[in-house]
Amino acid sequence: MTREIARCRMALPGGALLAVALSGAALAPASALTASAAAASLQYHITQRVALPGDEGWDDLTFEQGGERLFISHGSEVLVVNTRALKVVGTIADTPGVHGIALAPELGRGYISAGRANKIVVFDLKSLARTTEIKSTGENPDAIIYDPFSARVFAFNGRGRNMTAIDAKTDTVVGTLPLDAKPEFAVSDGKGRIYVNLEDKNSLAAIDPKLLRVVTVWPLSGCEEPSGLALDAAGKRLFAGCDNKVMVALDATSGRILGSAPIGDGVDGARYDPALHLAFASCGEGVLTVVKAETGTGGAPEVVQSLVTERGARTMTLDERGHRVFLVTASFGPPPAATADHPHPRPAILPGTFRLLVAEPGRSP
Known about the structure:
about 375 residues; 4-stranded antiparallel β-sheet; mainly beta; 2 domains; Methylamine Dehydrogenase, Chain H; 1 helix
């Protein structure tokens, strides 16, 4: 999640938006989209581009499943967008180095990992008001998830190389689990297992969220520096986005590798649509790879579409009910001169170019 703009070295000339050819076919209603449609001629298209305020970097996005709000990490704040009106309806400020947002709807709270401040910001889901801060985390909290099975929030600390568990009913830290690796994205199956990619170990850990122990670590054969992670809970399969331009599918019970599929360069996000049986990998080079993974074929992934998005759109989230994919990016100028302290400087974000991309499915002509 922290590799963000480092992969996005190609500037868009003059800050112009990258053009995408849209199909003239009408979009199908969300209620009509089925797994069989996905297996046939369903294709994703960029349908909206929405200017957003601010000129800082960004990381993960979180959609309020069953609702209509999108939470976007952006520099030192979280933008809240109403996805029906496609307008910013609120902000949660003072979240320096924000990486991720976790939602606990049954408790009415949300949690933000503020990496530069080594803290978790807790806010009220209805009013968006801050309620407390949790400072007893590991160093640089990055990915963050809520696990309904244990009623705990888990922050995965990049430089701390560990995981912090927070009781979501009391907002207190209940323990820290060493991982001896740099954790990246994580998912919960809601039934007693948490899975997290271990980026610098090319592996994936399965964790017991109540006992706070690593159950097993599986090597991800053929996968280098796994980042994005998605879960097919019903099919018990995991999809890991890897830096060597592949998505690896594995059995979530045994860790057996089911196969892999080519994706774009600079992956940092992954999601799974349970109704359409599609996995997604958002890649910083400007590609959203759509992968079909049918259980009848042994769960091996197969690329069904490589949608041109925009350079820098490396993170994503999914509206499972509406089947919409949300991504963000900006335009970039040239990188500053390299120094001894910063041998690979990131390109500068051009002011006023931060934007939201909406991808929706429709029929091919």
